[in-house]
Design a protein that fits this description.
The chain is an all-alpha fold. The protein has a single domain, classed as Up-down Bundle (Amino acid/polyamine transporter I). The chain contains 19 helices and two strands. The protein is globular and about 70 Å long. The two termini are 22 Å apart. Its main location: membrane.
Length: 467
């Protein structure tokens, strides 16, 4: 008897939890190895971490303004669509569905499985098949929860955000205590230029930015936010500052306890840290880290399903995925769609190759979205925005993103070429299925299949627009 639509259930606290829960996940526990490996030294790796935080703040502020200018959900997709047009937005959607999001989810899932099993097999590494099995079980659990209830997904995100901050505190506190006692051996010759390789720096930034990624998540659920004009800027500023401080202290703690060789040799840096510094927490911290990854998986599914939902509503994705379950009020088809691709990538993928693979496409389109903000300002100077950032912030962020993407072709040409090919493969699909109209016969068959799936899943189109 009720109207079917996505309710406004994301308060300021839940928005803050969504951002913290999406940023603080597997990244800070697996990326230190990738940042150090590609930056060459402790000092330069800390510079990369701080630079990634500053860059994330620039991006978050730009997205906060976009979120007050464009009142639809959908994040990168809707911003590119509204500012640069349908072709680049569809290419983003294509790359996001087939490359960026499943690879990202697979990385976080594998980190969850690795940390979950680490205490049971230490000091040996956990068997790869067991890691992948636990990874998939964790992902399927989050998928089921997001299909069941928006409210419970949001509550879980809030609870796990507290767990994430606790996990960081358990690493930061003992590390700072040892640093205060004079354990500074690993910071000698911190800026060794001999080990710095400039063409590897984009990969260091990819690893660091992966750890910070999540600052854009509030833009995906804009229509479900309470008072978005106030809460989006407030949530992103507070959450990004919190994460920058936490990440810098965490990395200093890592290097206080572990040398560069230990960080590079460790498949799970946080576990190696606890083994060396705090034996009494050897079984606690890996579980907290695994729960942090669990929260990141939850936030990723929660937000990406909204991208598919909005793309379907805009006519660039099958209409089934803009439908909502009649009782649960969740975008059930959009939530379930990632299931097969993530499963495949978890089964065949490796964390660091997957990281480079999806980072190229992700940062290319994020750079295009902030370029779209500059274009939107130029086209609509009369438009009043409740939140406005200085122009140099989106300009700087866009230039750095696109420059890093261009430089990465020299750093990892194989992975980047695969990502580029994935993006370009969307061109013929766009012109065949979106730009040109389907024949009546194909359209009738398509709608017949959609109708059958709609009955099976008990979903309908939303009855009112909330944007």
């Amino acid at each position: 008897d009720e109207a079917i639509f996505l309710r406004k259930k994301i308060t300021l606290l839940r928005a803050f939890s969504l951002l913290i829960g999406s940023m603080v996940g597997s990244g800070i526990f697996i990326s230190p190895k990738g940042v150090l490996e590609n930056s060459g030294s402790v000092g330069f790796s800390l510079v990369v971490w701080f630079s990634c935080g500053l860059l994330s703040m620039f991006g978050a502020l730009s997205y906060a303004e976009l979120g007050t200018r464009i009142t639809k959900s959908g994040g990168h997709y809707i911003y590119i669509l509204e500012t640069l047009g349908p072709l680049p937005s569809f290419l983003f959607l294509w790359a996001e569905f087939f490359a960026i999001r499943p690879a990202n989810s697979a990385v976080v899932s594998l980190a969850f499985g690795r940390y979950m099993l680490e205490p049971f097999f230490a000091p040996c590494a956990a068997p790869v098949p067991a890691v992948k099995l636990v990874s998939l079980l964790g992902y399927y659990t989050v998928l089921t929860l997001n299909s069941w209830s928006v409210t419970w997904s949001a509550r879980l995100q809030t609870a796990l955000s507290v767990v994430k901050l606790l996990a960081l505190a358990l690493i930061i506190v003992p590390g700072m205590m040892l640093l205060a006692q004079g354990h500074t051996d690993h910071f000698q010759d911190a800026f060794d230029r001999q080990s710095l390789v400039l063409d590897k720096l984009p990969l260091a930034f990819y690893a660091g930015m992966f750890a910070y990624s999540g600052w854009f998540q509030a833009s995906f659920v804009r229509e479900e936010l309470v008072k978005p004009e106030r809460n989006i800027p407030l949530a992103v500023i507070v959450s990004v500052i919190t994460v920058i401080v936490g990440y810098m202290l965490t990395n200093v703690s890592y290097y206080t306890v572990l040398g560069t060789e230990d960080v590079l040799a460790s498949p799970a840096v946080a576990v190696s840290f606890v083994q060396r510094a705090f034996q009494s927490l050897i079984s606690v911290v890996p579980v907290l880290v695994a729960l942090s990854c669990f929260g990141t998986m939850n936030g990723g599914i929660f937000t990406f399903s909204r991208t598919l939902f909005v793309a379907s509503r805009e006519g660039q994705w099958p209409p089934l995925f803009s439908m909502i379950h009649i009782r649960r009020h969740t975008p059930l088809p959009a939530v379930m769609l990632m299931f097969p691709l993530v499963t495949a990538m978890v089964c065949i993928g490796d964390i660091y190759h997957l990281l480079n693979f999806f980072s190229f496409s992700r940062w290319l389109f994020i750079g295009l979205a902030t370029l779209g903000l500059i274009v939107h300002r130029h086209r609509h100077p009369e438009l009043h925005s409740p939140f406005k950032v200085p122009l140099f912030i989106p300009v700087s962020f866009t230039i750095i993103c696109l420059f890093t993407v261009a430089m990465s072709f020299y750093s990892d040409p194989v992975s980047i070429s695969i990502g580029c090919t994935m993006v370009l493969s969307g061109f013929p699909v766009y012109y065949l299925l979106i730009h040109r109209q389907m024949s009546d016969r194909c359209r009738n068959l398509f709608y017949y299949l959609t109708h059958k799936l709609q009955l099976l899943l008990e979903v309908v189109q939303q009855e009112i627009k909330t944007y």
